[in-house]
Structure formats: structure tokens, C-alpha cells
């Protein structure tokens, strides 16, 4: 039986990847430090250990014999990275070096690295894979550095790799009590508690959102298709971009919530338009969008309501508290 090892297996994306491979008959195992994930997210019949990506000796025995590695774990904090760069860089770039190095040494056949649209920075949208990365914040820099080290290690020592570049993936199991990321989940959590959504700037920033079930087939193919080896591929919709304000309106409509957003100053280094082309994913992986934004949000609302909306957890230290640091974070106002 083929074996897949997943980092961040108790997190949003990692748990869905693990479930997908379990369902198609693979042996699945993985690690998570449970900083952003929950043990309850890990699918049944999946071996899971609480180990940090930085602790190579702690997961080498579990990694041994793996055919594929999906590196989903990351401190995926785009905006927060401007103010907590050491935390984000260490738990993104250094974590990737550790896992990729261990994977090369273990003879893994293919390594699928989950990168981020932050690699493109403020390049003209829609972003295409042939654009030279131009990250504008520490998170984007960490993701780009991670891609470079993955490519370097596997091209030097042997084995295959694929770089996945997801577009704002949303869905059930996404952490919704994190005040620093996951805009749709933050809005849903607040509205379910009778609170108005907080919008940075005027809400005109444009994004595309990917429902998790729509991208799992692509992620599976990235690990199993010969055509995906050595490629960098955007995954997610390139149709139906919406503004952050429009996202709030969609959620409010589904909840029958009287919308009156709280507008606060824009965050520094926030990209105005971050949308990607999915042409390469369609060509190489057979990607297609099956879930509308409205249906995806409805599924998220149902899941968060079932779990129970909650107060936000400010569990990451802000390393740089300056005049630019959002007051919503400093004052724990979200």
C-alpha cells in the first residue's frame, strides 16, 4: 500500500488532504503541533502524532517509507507577518527546510509544497505561474524562500517536487477563532455572535475564494500525475472575484444579518487585487469550479454554527508594536 505523510494534518487543508488519500486507499499519517489545528480534524484510521515540523527527530520514524509528502503546515499569516516576522518566518521557511531535508534523506518519491499567492506580491493580476515572484511582506518572502529550498534540495539530491499555489481556500475545519487570518471565517464567527464584521480600508480589495472540496482533486493529482512533477501550479477559481465588502454582504445575506460593517484603517502592505489564472491547473490537472461562493459560505456557516461560535484567541505575540500595528490586534478588538 502506498503511503502519504502530511504536515499540518490537524489543520484545515492538511486534514482534508489526509481524508482524501485515506478515502482512495492510501496509508496516511502525519504530524501537527496543534497551534492552529485541532485533533478532532484528523480523520479516523489516520496515524497522527503531535510533533512540530522543526523537530525532525520527532517525526523521522513516522516519515520513513512514505511515497508522498504533503507539506501543508505553515504560519500562514500574511498581514500579521509585517508585525511578527520572526515567528512567521521560522514556522514557514525554517519549517520547510526541516521537512524537505528529512524527506530527501528518507527517499520520498515526491514532495508537494503548499505555497501561497503571497509569492506574487503586488504584481499585475491575474497572477500566472511564469511571473517571477515578487513578495512584499515577510510571509510572502518566507513562502518564496521555501519554494527555492524545496527546488534546490530535490534537484540536487534526487526525487520529485511540485509547488501548489492555492487561492484563499475556505470551508469546514478552517480555524474561525483566529483574529489574524481567514477573513470569511472571522466574519461568520462575529456575525453568528451578533457582532458587525471588521473591514480594513474601504473593503474594495479583490479576492477569489476556493472551496476546499474543489481543490482536493488537484492536490491529489499533484502527487500522482507525471505531468505535475517539477511544476508550480495555481489552484483555485479565476472567475467571480469579489471585494471584501461584497464577501461581508454575501455572509450577511445568508444569515439574514443587518449589515453595518466596522471600517478601520488599511493594513500596511495589503495587496489591492490578488487573483490568479487557473489555466495551467485546468490544462494539467483537469481543474474546474463546482462550488459557488454562496454554497461554500453556506456550508461554512453551518459547520461553524454546529461547532459553536467563540471569542477570538490572541495567542501569537506581536513582535513589532508600532504606529502601523492595527489597533484591532493591539487592543484585541476583533
From TrEMBL:
One Pfam family per UniProt: Epimerase
InterPro entries to which the protein is assigned, alphabetical: Epimerase_deHydtase, NAD(P)-bd_dom_sf
Domain NAD-dependent epimerase/dehydratase: 4-236
Domain of life, source organism: Bacteria
Family note: Belongs to the NAD(P)-dependent epimerase/dehydratase family.
UniProt-recorded name of the protein: NAD-dependent epimerase/dehydratase family protein
Organism (species): Streptomyces polygonati
Taxonomic path: Bacteria, Bacillati, Actinomycetota, Actinomycetes, Kitasatosporales
Amino acid at each position: 500500500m502506498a503511503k502519504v505523510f502530511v504536515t499540518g494534518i490537524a489543520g484545515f487543508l492538511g486534514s482534508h488532504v489526509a481524508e482524501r488519500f485515506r478515502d482512495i486507499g492510501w496509508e496516511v499519517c502525519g504530524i501537527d503541533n496543534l497551534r492552529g489545528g485541532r485533533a478532532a480534524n484528523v480523520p479516523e484510521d489516520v496515524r497522527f502524532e503531535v510533533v512540530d515540523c522543526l523537530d525532525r527527530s520527532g517525526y523521522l520514524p513516522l516519515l520513513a517509507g512514505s511515497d508522498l509528502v504533503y507539506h501543508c503546515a505553515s504560519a500562514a499569516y500574511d498581514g500579521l507577518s509585517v508585525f511578527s516576522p520572526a515567528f512567521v518566518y521560522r514556522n514557514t521557511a525554517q519549517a520547510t527546510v526541516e521537512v524537505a531535508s528529512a524527506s530527501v534523506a528518507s527517499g520520498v518519491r515526491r514532495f508537494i509544497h503548499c505555497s501561497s499567492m503571497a509569492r506574487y506580491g503586488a504584481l499585475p493580476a491575474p497572477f500566472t505561474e511564469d511571473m517571477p515572484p515578487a513578495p512584499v511582506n515577510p510571509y510572502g518572502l518566507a513562502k518564496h524562500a521555501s519554494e527555492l529550498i524545496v527546488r534546490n534540495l530535490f534537484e540536487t539530491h534526487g526525487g520529485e517536487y511540485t509547488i501548489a499555489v492555492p487561492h484563499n481556500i475556505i470551508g469546514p475545519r478552517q480555524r474561525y477563532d483566529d483574529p489574524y487570518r481567514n477573513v470569511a471565517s472571522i466574519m461568520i464567527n462575529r456575525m453568528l455572535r451578533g457582532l458587525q464584521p471588521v473591514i480594513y480600508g474601504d473593503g474594495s480589495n479583490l479576492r477569489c475564494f476556493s472551496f476546499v472540496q474543489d481543490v482536493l482533486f488537484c492536490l491529489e493529482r499533484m502527487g500522482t500525475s507525471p505531468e505535475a512533477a517539477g511544476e508550480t501550479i495555481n489552484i483555485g477559481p479565476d472567475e467571480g472575484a469579489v471585494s471584501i465588502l461584497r464577501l461581508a454582504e454575501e455572509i450577511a445575506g445568508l444569515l439574514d444579518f443587518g449589515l453595518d460593517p466596522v471600517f478601520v484603517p488599511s493594513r500596511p502592505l495589503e495587496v489591492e487585487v490578488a487573483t490568479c489564472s487557473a489555466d495551467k491547473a485546468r490544462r494539467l490537472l483537469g481543474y474546474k469550479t463546482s462550488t459557488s461562493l454562496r454554497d461554500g459560505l453556506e456550508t461554512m456557516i453551518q459547520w461553524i454554527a454546529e461547532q459553536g461560535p467563540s471569542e477570538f484567541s490572541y495567542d501569537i505575540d506581536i513582535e513589532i508594536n508600532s504606529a502601523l500595528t492595527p489597533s484591532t490586534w493591539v487592543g484585541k478588538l476583533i
